[in-house]
Each structure stands twice: as structure tokens, then as C-alpha cells.
Amino acid sequence: MTTTLPTLAHLLAPILASTPAPHRLEVTFDDVTVAVSSNSQALIDTLAHYFRDFAGGGGATVVPVVAIEAAPPELDLPFAVQEREGGKSLKEAYAELPDGRVVRKLKTGLVFAFGHGENYAVGPCLQNDNQVVNFINNRFIELRLKRGALLFHAAGIAEAGQGLVLSGFSGAGKSTLALEIMRHGTDFVSNDRIMVARGDSGRLTMTGVAKMPRVNPGTVLNNPNLASVMGEADRKRFSALPQAALWDLEHKYDAFIDDCFGPGRFTLSCAMAGLVVLRWKRDASPMTASRVDLRRRRDLMAAFMKDVGLFYEFEDPSEASLASQDSYLDLLGDLPVLEIDGGVDFHQAAMACLDFLRDIRR
């Protein structure tokens, strides 16, 4: 027997009818304004504080998001669990509807529903505001990708309007390196996702995501600009641990760029001057930095190619979720690429990245 699945509007109608959402917030990422409505002023205040560098409207494109603070909703849908690579713990289940997708966070019960321009978050939003932040940012990512950009698993920094994309496999220290480079006066572009597109002029543009870097205790202890994010008790506790133990800690802090480096240092979009790929490892070998040709080093491409994930709505079910290596190579063209190998040394790597960027700009 075939079950007829509801539309988004029908599925959420009882919740939306009984829960007005009069509180408003507008944030603008480049030319896209996300207009958030909620039944919770506390949630709006939390999001306004988080996105304070991007407050206000005026974007050419407006994306509505409705966030309802409530108990985890019980939805009678045929959810499938999203498998993860490498045996990682399962985080999400999803169900496809005729006009969109519903994603349920397995741990928190928070539900996200989106499709055809409608975007909803329903459940314990305030307790899990980081997931709502990610949902808002994913709406912006989707728009950029639908306009032709490719998604990179990378951080980014910029100097004098010219940016570097800093890529590497998960845990390589992309964010830590970006924040180390920031100590030398650069701007911050993105923490973990970057969209790259080629404009009408033929120049590459890199666009980041309005998400603050989440840093581990080792990163904080080794970067004086981050001192304010860690309390004295944590500082004493973590300072007593060996460096190897600090690297693997799951404890994270949000590092707000304006608090740590001063106002006006978060630049969401700029020209892309080069790409850095981290291949280093935690050993005593010397760090090395050398330019490479990606067409001869396709083995490096897995470090930055990124699947669009569950929060991307395909207009055509036959669309591939991950662009091909050739697509990335065609986009990047003859862009300068720097490979950093050998042992981990964030200070030396920061200097190598700055030298690389400044050499390109000459």
C-alpha cells in the first residue's frame, strides 16, 4: 500500500496555526537577506548577537526562515537515517516530501523542513541555537550553489581584498591556521565552508559563511588573540595537559572575530587569489611548503571537494550531490596552489601562506 505524503504546508499547518511568530530579525550575507520569524524573542536575541556583524536587511534576494521554539515535534513520516563516512556517529534522519525535505536531528529532536522557498525550524531551537545558525547559513549556501558556485571544505582569510582558501582533511587545523594568520592583520572570510565561483569578469570569487570558528583548547592556549574565550579555570586545567592530548579534545569555544581581533575583520566575500592544501601530520618532521599543479596532483582534491549534504534541495532528483574533479579543475583553472606538508607548525605555515599570498599579489 502506497502512503501519500503531505506537503510542507499541510505537515506544519497545525503547528504554525497554533504558534504565532511575531518576532523578527533580518541578517544580510553579501546580497542575500535572511528574514527570520519566531515565537521566541529570546531566540531572536540570541541569533541577533551571533550574527551581529551582518545585522540588517537590504539584500537583493530575501530568504524567509520561520523558527518555532517548541517541544520536539512528533511527525508521522518515513524517516531514513543519513549514513556517515568512517563510522562516525549518526546525526540526522530525513524524509522526502512532494515539495521538499524534512530533516530531524537524532540527538536533539529539532526538525528542519524546507523546499520551494519555504524554510522552517521546529523544536528546542533556543537550547540548540547552533543548529539554527547552521540552518540559516545553509540557506545562503544553497542559493550560492544554485547560482553556479562550487562548495569547498575550507577556511579562508583575505588581505587587501585578495583571499586564500585554506583546505585540508577534517581535523587538519584549517580554522587554527586561519586564526594564526589573522594575528598578522588579515581579514577572516570563513571557518569551514567556502563557495567559489567565476564572475562575469572571469575572476574567481570566494564567499564564506557567517559562522564563527569553534576552536579547541589547544588553539586558544597558543593564540593570544583568543585568550578572552577561555575562563581562568579552564586555562589552568588545559594548560596542564600535553600538546598531543589537547589536539584531540572535543571541547570547543566560539571565537567571535570582533571580540578577538577587533571590529570590521569579518569579510564574507572577496577575490580568490590562491588555494592552500594542508597535508601535514603530527610528527617531528620539518614543515614544507611548495607550489603544485592540481591537474598533476589530483590526490589533493579530496581535501577540499565537499558534498552539498542534506540541507541542499535538488531541483532535479538526478542531480549529482558532488561535482566532479574536472568541474573543480575547470573552475580553478591556473589558480596558484600551495601544498603544506611535513610536520605541523602553525606559525611557520602562517608565514608561508602570507608569503604565498603576497607573492601572488605582486
UniProtKB/TrEMBL annotation:
Superkingdom in the source lineage: Bacteria
InterPro entries: HprK-rel_B, P-loop_NTPase
Alphabetically ordered keywords of this record: Kinase, Transferase
Keyword Transferase: yes
Keyword Zinc in annotation: no
GO molecular function annotation: kinase activity
The protein's name in its UniProt record: HPr serine kinase domain-containing protein
